[in-house]
Amino acid sequence: MAATSGVSTAIRVADLRKSYGDVRAVDGVSFDVGSGEVFGLLGPNGAGKTTTVEMLEGLRKPDGGSLEVLGIDPVRDADALKQRIGVALQTAALYPRLTVVEIIDLFRSFYKTTLPTQQLVESFGLDERKGAQSRELSGGQRQRLAVALALVNDPELVFLDEPTTGLDPAARRALWDVVRDLRDKGKTVLLTTHYMDEAEVLCDRIAIMDHGRILEFGTVEELITKHFHERAVHLDHNDALGAEDLGSLPAVHSVAGDADEVVLYTSDVPATIAGLLALAEARGTEAANLGIRRASLEDVFLALTGRALRD
Amino acid sequence: MIRGLVALTTANVRTFSRDRAALFWTIAFPLIFILMFGFIFQGGGTGSLAIGWADDDGSEASTGLRAAFAAVPSVELEDGTKTDVLDAMKAGEVSAAIIVPAGYGAAAAVATGGTGAPATIEVYTDPAQQTTQGRVYAIVGSVVGVVNLGGRPPIVVPDPQTLATEDIDFISYFVPSVLAMALMQLGVFAAIPLVADREKLILKRLAATPLRRSQLVGSNVIMRLIIAAAQTVIIIGVGVLVFSVEIIGSLALAALFVVLGAMTFIALGYVIASFTVTEDAANGATSVIQFPLMFLSGIFFPIQFMPDFLQAIARAMPLTYLADALRQTMVGGVAFAPLWFDFAFLAVCLAIFFGISSRFFRWQ
Predict the structure, then answer these.
(1) What CATH number has the domain spanning A229-294?
(2) pLDDT in tens, A121-150
């Protein structure tokens, strides 16, 4: 478990704000990221994650609030900051007609200190494709190259914006290994994702973000235990089984759900299920896709936002 | 850092050289243009030849001689005084001039009798136009040959005269025009990769590196100037080697205008990139802009031949002045505007385009 106390702080954000017209994309966000920590910004598309990250990277100017990244103000001294950070955007932005090696060498030319091209090519599994133009690469290879480019300057702090979106499961796992490797090397990583499992597996701490605000943050365990001592009983949404009826079932503490699924948080699973089945029978319906699980990050998100975090 | 600028310029040149469409439009298309139109019009012998005719003698013999020339199928005679026809020739209205001096008839009569020197006619041609000169001499030779059949020693001999004119042949007019067109396309097309790179978030990704925007723009401009130099060498090379275009002007001045012209149209490309969001839109906008520039700028035929309202449009087109300047500095010919004016017009356009794009260009 990483903790910010006693360790130097890589990122300090206080009351960060950014609006586009009437839309408050980032609406008073505050958080700290410790050195060597893998920090996850978790939230659905449009939550304000990318805008937040791009302000930290010095790509966008905040409307308000204060920012400090590696002890540098990204607004005032973006040049100094850019030497020390690595960035992978949401989409792999690659010159289509340049080869893997040419693109890496191009990016190396922008920095004072760099890692050797061959080392990057090998550690990202691109050795066999190093002479290929980027337009000929697969989605996973493109994404790996994009992350390799974020590391050409051996940065202290790496921003990965939705690094696995659109990848097949194998390619996702490969990228997870890259992030674990970065943590092992003591790098600070800020990653955004809308995958719960990714956040649970990779991140030391997580901030849950929605509608431009941070709803909660902590370690995965902290978030789950803070909100749930219970287990979760879930079933398909059913108009005949209203939230009030379900909430009055035995041992149920709370009910959450959306148009697809209802989740009952209970301290006594057998009692709740017995009551649920009896209720369904009395209503002449059935509890479809009934299941039980330990509360997860998904439940935390559901409880906080009132909707599931799905693609 | 100069290293980033060099690396990005190299990357741009590589990208360009691997883009077949870009290569076609900037190198192959102008070449095809020159070769196609060059060979169509190079024949020369097929077109009619306008010759100024001044008869200072007014005798029966000189009238007969005129009739003999007028009978040559491809010859059109334009009558006038000696001053008239020489002026017409200088202005390019006629390709050559023949002057029958006073006393021709008397001299010819004496010569026919077998005594005295042969009568002479003055034949003015422009040595810069060798094809035309050759045709005129051939025609004069055959006509005079017929007249001379009756007598030996000859009755009439031509007295060759030279007159430098502002008239240039078609291909000499055409080569600088195609170069101007190629430079225009090279510049305007700068919009397309720029918009594509922005759309693919490459510009944003570069913004997250220490690379400066000035290096980014600089590398794009340098890359296009390198291509412009290649275009210039290839186009002029083909003109000189294949079509014997004579470069009489200053290559240094021509190079100055190549650079100024390329910069002006690159800036126009940035203006297009400032107002288009997608690569497709940039493609469309470059077409919409380049075709009027091409056809309303008098690069394929002299502006004087256009109707008045089109002339007014041509006067507002920067390409008109680039083509005019390249023509003046390379092959001569009738100037559309003084060279300093061409320079000033292009420089003002460059400043305006630069101003617009630095105000409206979006990096993300």
Answers:
(1) 3.30.70
(2) 998 889 999 999 999 999 889 989 999 999
| Domain count for chain B | 2
The angle subtended at Cα A87 by Cα A92 and Cα A188, nearest 5°, is 135
Q: How far apart are CA A294 and CA A301, in angstroms?
A: 14
Whole-prediction pTM value? 0.74
Do B209 and B77 fall into the same domain? no
What domain range is B100 assigned to?
A: 49-162
Q: Do A97 and B14 touch (CB under 8 A)?
A: yes
Distance CA(A27)–CA(A59), nearest Å, equals 18
Interface contact B11-A106, CB threshold 8 A: yes
Contact A53, A159 (CB under 8 A): yes
Tokens of A118: 């061959």
Residues of A in contact with B18 (CB under 8 A): 97, 133
> Residue B44 region, left (φ>0) first, then alpha (ψ -120 to 50), else beta?
left
Give the pLDDT confidence of A30-48 residue by residue, as tens digits. Answer: 999 999 999 999 888 888 9
Closest chain A residue by Cα to residue B7: A106
